[in-house]
Amino acid sequence: MTTVTTRTVAYPADALTMVGHLALPAGADRRPAVLIGPEGMGLSDVERRRAEALAELGYVTLAFDLHGGRYLSNPEEMLARCMPLLADPDRMRGIGHAALNVLRAEPRADLDRIAAIGYGTGGAIALELGRDGVNLSAIGTVNALTTGRPGEAARIRCPVWAGVGSEDPIMPPAQREAFTAEMQTAGVDWRLAVYGGALHAFHHPPVDHTVLPGVGHHPRHAQRAWRDIVDLLAECLPVTE
Question: pTM value?
Answer without folding.
Answer: 0.96
